[in-house]
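Checklist before submission:
- one chain only
- standard amino acids only
- sequence pasted in full

Submission:
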Amino acid sequence: MADPDKYCLAHAHICLSIQEWGVCWQALGVISAVVFGTFGLFKVFHELRRLNEQREKEIHDKETSARLKRTEFFLSLHRRLFDDKDLYAVLKLIDGDDPRLREEDMWDSKRKLLVFFEEIALLIRSKQIDKDVALYMFGYYSLCAKNGTNFLTGIDVQREYWALFFEFSDDAERFSDNHKNGPPASMAL
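Returned file contents:
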């Protein structure tokens, strides 16, 4: 017969006092808390890792998108030289400092090319485009303009008026002197 101070579990022959059952329930609660807490911590850790990976992917995607936009922008600048009829008219003649550059109807087109080089210099200063890439892609033409006597006819090319153009051309000359065999292998958009 069971002790009146003990309580038995149905279908099992385990009989314990109220205090002993309280201790069992406390132990069961602690074990449950440890199991569920461990599972919860694992879940939190897994979720944090997933969020971190997602954030890194978003950052990478933004950087890739920004690089693509910079590349598009840079290539549109380069195409502008050939698509703009005034710039292209000067560009065709600038290599050999063609005497047709002296003609008065070319003067505005030549000024437009100088402004283009000044825009490039401003973009470099504001770190919107890479200096070495800009010097490699546009520097040669700026040197042809700076050194061409036919090109300079009809334009007041004092440094005070065209300071950015001269800054860009001077940088292009140094770049050309430093990279006689072409651009550095590390150059990229």
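Reviewer check: Residues 84-178 form one domain.
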